[in-house]
Amino acid sequence: MSSQTAKLKVDPRDGKLAMAHFYVAFIALALGGLMGLLQTLVRSGKFELPWGIDYYQILTVHGVLMGLVLTTFFIMGFQYAAVSRTAGTHSPAARRIGWIGFWVMTVGTIMAATMVLLKEASVLYTFYAPLKAHWIFYLGMTFVVVGSWLDGAAQIMTYAKWRKENPGKPSPLLSFMAVINTVLWIVATLGVASTVLFQLLPWSLGLVDTVDVLISRTLFWYFGHPLVYFWLLPAYMCWYAIVPKIIGGKIFSDSLARLSFILFLLFSIPVGFHHQLMEPGIDPAWKFLQVVLTFMVIIPSLMTAFSLFATFERFGRSKGATGLFGWFKVLPWNDARFTVPFIGMASFIPAGAGGIINASNQMNQVVHNTIWVTGHFHLTAATSVVLTFFGISYWLVPHLTGRKLTKAMNKLGIIQGWVWFIGMVFMSGAMHFQGLLGGPRRSAFSTYGDAAQAAEWIPYQIAQAVGGSILFLGIILMIIIFVNLAFFAPKGEEEFPVGEAENLEEKAPMIFENWKLWLGITAALILFAYTIPFIDMIQNAPPGSPGFKTWNSW
Amino acid sequence: MAKAELKSNKKTEIEDSSSLKGTLASVFFLGIFIVVTWVSVYFLFLDRF
């Protein structure tokens, strides 16, 4: 019995590394959240930043900390722990690589953050050329990416060890999912690494005078779209494989879950052009092809929705629920580990619908570069993904620190989830509507010479400030819960829930573990979608651009 | 006698516990929501461009 308990627990040495990632992630949440609050206050027109702090500087801090630092650190910590829990304790070599990865990422974060704080890099989190930052910013971002590769390598090593020790068996579901997401990340980051190493770094160091903006943006979006799936898949790991256990139900189908992850790997990368639909220099036929591939991603998303509904309904009916929606009522609504990720899942319905609108060529003309887009990714990343990460923290942090989620913290967690939801309804809702009225994203407050159209936007901007303030309250609550669970909660054992498939007879087909096949198709799709457009872009290259610095130094 | 019993044809209201009709309704709702939002923005596009 005791050996079984020991097996179900993440080894404390692995737990320490996962927690190191979470400390950085939650510091990023606190600082990035404060910047977000300030942005919404500035855009309300009622508040100005003191001491010469620039709107675009805090916008960069918010985007980099929330979109890149919080997500990457949390995901790597969570996946590292999930692989350790399901495929076995990491070897000392894998753990050492994981620690090196963590420190490389942390040093990179400090380098990039320092340059932003010194007003040397107000280039927003997409760091589009020809906006030019200090070279230390780009080098710092490179370190974050390289560090994450090392973190990922540790997970792949432990997965490979499991496969070697268990020939002919499908790997544990959570480990399989973590490795798919790591592979997706490695393939995607090759694009951003290329633009940073071969274009932006030499250019910011003064080794070359100009940069090819189109190539740089294309390489960025080759990375930028799978980036959002890199955020989303760990949330799906929780929804598919952890939430069923929390509610006391079963995973609807292990094979369906694996297939949907493989489809995400195949179809989330060769689709970057749907972020560049309004850009000149790319043949519309290739844009069309990538839009078609983008729509293929809807398939695994709908498979996920079906599978989750089915898990919930099966569980509800096993508890005696009747009628069309009786099962909905018997779900454990007083358990923060379920309710908070559930709010995230529900938010993915409008989030996904908005995404299909963004990716449709004509509708992209309606919403492109408007604050609708900001509203969209505050539903996907900042609600679906982040609330699921919070839900994971409620059990994972005490599991790793040898503490318990108390009743009081569970209640505070549920309150936190609802506060977040209400704040986001105001903020993201107002962003969506203002965007449809043409309100631009990435802009400080302006009345645009007292234009009538701009006057229409102001009530929505005030609603965003109200929502932003409520969300900041949500962040304070989350930090209180995190600190409590990490340092002050009573000692005890908190479960790391891992779901079981409903039908244990149904073994996942081994073809799902055939990496040569899936990586081969991934590469083929990428080459198909990008080769000819790249040749075209290079042969008909626009003139290179010098760097621009649109902000004032200190 | 047995025949008469069979004929009584009493309707028994036992719900199949493996039923997924709630899931079916939910995914239909989801599909309709996606179509409605898409079509509304499409009409906005037609109206403007």
Automatic annotation (TrEMBL), chain A:
The keyword Electron transport applies. Residues 16-487 form the Cytochrome oxidase subunit I profile domain. The keyword Heme applies. It is an enzyme of class 1 (oxidoreductase). InterPro entries: Ba3-like_Oxidase_I, Cyt_c_oxase-like_su1_dom, Cyt_c_oxase-like_su1_sf, Cyt_C_Oxase_1, Cyt_c_Oxase_su1_BS. GO terms for molecular function: cytochrome-c oxidase activity; heme binding; oxidoreductase activity. This is Cytochrome c oxidase subunit 1. One of its GO terms (biological process) is aerobic respiration. The chain crosses the membrane at residues 20-38, 58-78, 99-118, 133-152, 173-200, 220-243, 255-273, 285-309, 338-357, 377-397, 418-437, 457-487, 517-535. It is found in: Membrane. CDD domains: ba3-like_Oxidase_I. One of its GO terms (cellular component) is membrane.
TrEMBL record, chain B:
The chain crosses the membrane at residues 24-45. InterPro entries: Cyt_c_oxidase_su2a. Pfam families: CoxIIa (PF08113). It comes from the Bacteria. Keywords: Membrane, Transmembrane, Transmembrane helix. This is Cytochrome c oxidase subunit 2A. It comes from Neobacillus niacini. The lineage of its organism: Bacteria, Bacillati, Bacillota, Bacilli, Bacillales.
